[in-house]
Amino acid sequence: MTRVALLWHMHQPFYQDLVTGEHMLPWVRLHALKDYYGMIALLREFPDVRLTFNLVPSLLVQLQAFADDRARDRYLDLSLKPADALDDADVDFMLENFFHAQRHRMIDVYPRYAELLGKRGPLETAADRRRAAAAYSRDDLRDLQVLHKLAWIDPFYLEGDARVRALVSKARAFTEDDKQALRAVELELLRRVVPEYAAAAARGQVELSTSPFFHPILPLLCDTDIYLRTHPEARRPRRPFVHPEDAAEQLARATAHHQRLFGSAPTGVWPSEGSVSDAMVPLVAAAGFGWMATDEQILGRTLGVTFTRDGNGRVEQADRLYQPYRISAGGASVSCLFRDHVLSDLIGFAYASWSAEAAAEDFAARLADAGRAYRAQGGRGDPVITIVVDGENAWEHFEGGGRPFLRALYRRLSSHPEVRTVTMAEACAAPGGELATIFPGSWIDANFYIWIGHADDQRAWSQLGDARDALERAGSAPDAAAAREEVLIAEGSDWFWWYGDDHSSAHDLEFDDLFRRHLRNAYRLLGQPVPDDLYLRNISTRPAPVAQTDPSGFVTPTVDGEDTSYFEWLGAGAFLVRETAGAMHRAEAAPAHIQAVRFGFDPERLYVRVDTQGAAVDLLAGGLDVALTFLAPDGLRFVVRASEGRLAASFWTRDGSGWVPADARGSVAAAATSLEVALPWTALGVAAGEAAAFVVTVLRGGVEVERQPGDRPLEVTAPDAAFTARHWSA
Question: How many domains does the chain have?
Answer without folding.
Answer: 3
